């Protein structure tokens, strides 16, 4: 084999292996900082706390979780988040549509809508604590139109909806940016054809925009759900501290209580494992449903 042939062979071999070499650092980081700690946490969830610290207890922690009213309430709130998820995705989707269609002032709206996303959850929670207080400005405004004051954060039937509403307001700016990025790949001729055919805005959105942005919608659904399950701790801590009567507990807040206040790390690990499984199952179901309703992607 000549020198030229050897160089060609080495070049071909390098091209075959180059992608794996380039991806390897990222894979190692994910394994070392994500997957390995996850496996350690799952293993730790089968050990005991307190007097049984470090000893194997089987599924005792999981059985205790199922019997804990606070954890049961947190799972019910997860179900509520799943039901409200379409609203959390539809709001930024509609606003991004209006911005893409260049409604008057769309450049200003783009900045205004994204502004809450840069605020700390603690700051957002403190602001809305003042606004939603029983004697706060919102109830004062409702009083001017003859509506009685609402205990937004003190009523167990209302508090969770209030916190979720604040979460949607505080985070939809990121989903808005993702939708706008999706619109950048949208074929404008499809919209022009819809206008020529006299399609209404609702029909254009349903028959043109949604099918064209099916991948973007899938991504926003999954990331929004993960964010609602794992990024609401700051709001819960500042606005309700899990109350009233445990009505605003979510698994992440329950995990913090068990780990930080009750000193039960093994039980917290079990709750973390349950939360991971919930996110995995919900994410896969969302992708499956969206693919079926959106057609081939």
Notable features of this structure?
297 residues, mainly alpha, MetI-like fold, 13 helices
Number of strands: 0
The rounded distance between the terminal residues' Cα atoms is 47 Å
What overall form do the CA principal axes indicate?
flat
CATH superfamily: MetI-like
CATH architecture: Orthogonal Bundle
- Taking pLDDT < 50 over at least 5 consecutive residues as the criterion, the unreliable ranges are none
- Averaged pLDDT: 86
Biggest β-sheet strands, sense, barrel? none
Number of domains: 1
The top-level CATH class is Mainly Alpha
How much strand content do the residues show?
Answer: under 5%
Structural class: mainly alpha
Helix tally?
13
Tell me the helix content. over 70%
Radius of gyration: 25 Å
CATH topology: MetI-like fold
String of helices and strands: HHHHHHHHHHHHH
Brief summary:
The protein has 13 helices and no strands.
Kindly describe this structure.
The protein has 297 residues and is mainly alpha-helical. It has one domain: MetI-like (MetI-like fold). The chain is built from 13 helices and no strands. It has helices spanning 3-44, 60-67, 69-100, 106-114, 121-131, 137-144, 159-184, 188-196, 201-212, 214-230, 233-239, 251-261, 265-294. Helix 3 (69-100) packs antiparallel against helix 10 (214-230), helix 7 runs antiparallel to helix 10 (214-230) and helix 10 (214-230) packs antiparallel against helix 13 (265-294). The radius of gyration is 25 Å and the shape is flat. The protein starts with a helix and ends with a helix.
């Amino acid at each position: 084999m000549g020198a030229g042939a050897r160089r060609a062979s080495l070049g071909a071999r390098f091209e075959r292996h180059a992608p794996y070499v380039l991806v390897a650092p990222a894979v190692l980081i994910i394994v070392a900082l994500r997957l390995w700690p996850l496996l350690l946490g799952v293993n730790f969830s089968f050990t005991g706390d307190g007097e049984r610290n470090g000893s194997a207890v089987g599924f005792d922690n999981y059985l205790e979780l199922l019997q804990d009213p606070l954890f049961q309430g947190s799972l019910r709130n997860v179900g509520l988040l799943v039901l409200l998820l379409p609203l959390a995705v539809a709001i930024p989707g509609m606003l991004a549509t209006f911005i893409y269609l260049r409604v008057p002032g769309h450049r200003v709206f783009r900045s205004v809508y994204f502004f809450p996303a840069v605020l700390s959850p603690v700051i957002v929670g403190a602001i809305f604590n003042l606004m939603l207080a029983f004697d706060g400005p919102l109830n004062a405004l409702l009083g001017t139109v003859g509506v009685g004051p609402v205990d937004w954060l003190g009523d167990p039937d209302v508090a969770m909806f209030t916190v979720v509403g604040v979460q949607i307001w505080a985070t939809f700016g990121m989903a808005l940016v993702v939708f706008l990025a999706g619109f950048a790949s949208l074929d404008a001729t499809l919209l022009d054809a819809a206008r020529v055919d006299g399609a209404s805005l609702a029909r254009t959105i349903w028959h043109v925009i949604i099918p064209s942005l099916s991948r973007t919608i899938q991504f926003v659904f999954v990331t929004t759900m993960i964010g609602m399950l794992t990024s609401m701790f700051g709001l819960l801590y500042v606005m309700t501290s899990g109350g009233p009567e445990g009505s605003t507990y979510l698994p992440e807040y329950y995990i913090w209580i068990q780990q930080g206040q009750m000193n039960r790390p093994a039980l917290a690990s079990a709750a973390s494992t349950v939360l991971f499984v919930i996110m995995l199952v919900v994410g896969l179901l969302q992708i499956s449903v969206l693919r079926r309703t959106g057609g081939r992607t």
